[in-house]
Amino acid sequence: MRDSLLRALVLFGGITVAITELASPFQLLRRVPLAVAWTAVGIAASVWLWHHRPGLPHLTIRPLEAVIAAVIAAIAATVGFTAVLSPPNSTDAMAYHMPRVVYWAQAGSVAFFPTPYFNQITLQPLAEYIMLHTYVLSGGDHFINLIAFGAFLGSIVGVSALAGALGLSTRGQAFAALFCATLPNGILQASGAKNDSLLALWLVCLLYFAARRNAPFAGLAFGLALATKATAYLFAPPM
After folding, report:
1. What pTM was estimated for this model as a whole?
2. Distance in angstroms (rounded) separating the CA atoms of residues 230 and 65
3. Which of 68, 84, 95, 165 could form a disulfide with 174 if both were Cys (CB 3.0 to 4.6 A apart)?
4. DSSP conformation letters of 8-40
């Protein structure tokens, strides 16, 4: 189940890039075209799931793992509540993450635009591509913070799956997930509009699929990381 979730997240990132880049030259990054595109993706995914229905996993409840899961759930609920109630308000979000989203939404395109602040048109755009889709489809910044929050949750799942791929027991996987969920900087960024949480998710996916020797998904996760934040050029090669 965790493997399927991580595959779905990586495919979601790739599909977001494809839709954005294909629609942008025709100024089609607007509500109706995006709604049609994502509806088509949803239908295709539903058909695939119908023909490849996975069996229900066998769940065994262990006391220690259950306690750890409850702690992680409490942290996630608190962070998610903050993400929903708080508008994007960090310095970087106000300086270039959100302005570029607003410019793109107005133009219906991710083409360059006149600006005195080059970060708005030069830094890696993938996080803002996803923000753009939520911004256009919802009519505002209501769900922008949930992107980092979703990446935070995905990273927790990915770390536990990576621990399993490296041979750790269920207890070791639970503690790995708890370690990820309690990283102070991770908690702070998971309710905001920056791109670090999304980068962390792609790097975790890269490690997981590399450990599973799944070259296509590892390569796609690597590409998504490079398209999200420049620090991926530092962290990804050693991995």
Report:
1. 0.95
2. 36
3. 68
4. HHHHHHHHHHHHHHHHGGGT--SHHHHHHHHHH
